[in-house]
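Reading a protein record of the kind used here takes only a little practice. Think of the row as the fold of the chain written in a discrete alphabet. With that in mind, consider the following protein and its fold in token form:
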Amino acid sequence: MAASPGRRRRWEREQARLKAGVVEEDTEEWQKDPHFTGLHRVGGVDLSYIKGDESRACASLVVLSYPALEVLYQDCRMVAVSAPYVAGFLAFREVPVLVEAVQRLQQEEPQLQPQVLLVDGNGLLHPRGFGTACHLGVLTDLPCIGVAKNLLQVDGLVRDELHREQIRSLQRSGEAFPLTGTSGKVLGMVLRSYNNSSKPLYVSVGHRVSLDTAVRLVRACCRFRIPEPIRQADIRSREYLRKQPCAPVEVLEASPDSSKKEAELED
């Protein structure tokens, strides 16, 4: 299922309209504290698909305590996904059901609303500077951070030998370097999140958070390579799918252009 040129143009206009609402700086007192004093709830979202069925997915929203990172809330349910997957426009496929999950939480358990959401995807690191984390952040008005496992090659950023050499220079957990495009804009940070994994994370601003704060918080939420809110959302969505009647064993990640291995959840 492909998107027509007309639909793409509408999506581009919508992205440009919503992008005007993105706030690229800290707006909360807890963000400005070195120890995130005042932060108590961190959310994570994920969608998982059954292989061979791109029209249905399990949407997962979890809320974890901070700093203990214990699950306080989870919402996993099957959803219909009507928009086609188009590179650069993933948000139009997935954000509507994630917004609904956030709204259900706000209505049913308002005291558990997350103070920040970690999104499995990109924020400002995007061809038009408005990835899924920005889209979800603007529509929910929650602070959002994009956390991707692979480099999105935009604005002159490439996964070349220089990039790989910079990654190898990250020796310890918490070390990072900026992703500066040919435009001169810093689009995100490459973070080594876990000592036992040489694979980095690509962190970018979604909404209502600065890049420095985003990197510090992602690192603080990592027990393994993947930050715990996203990791738990992924684990729970996959488990939910496996329990569906006649579900195939193989479960895919949200976006068809990137493969997620079970080992990535632990490494």
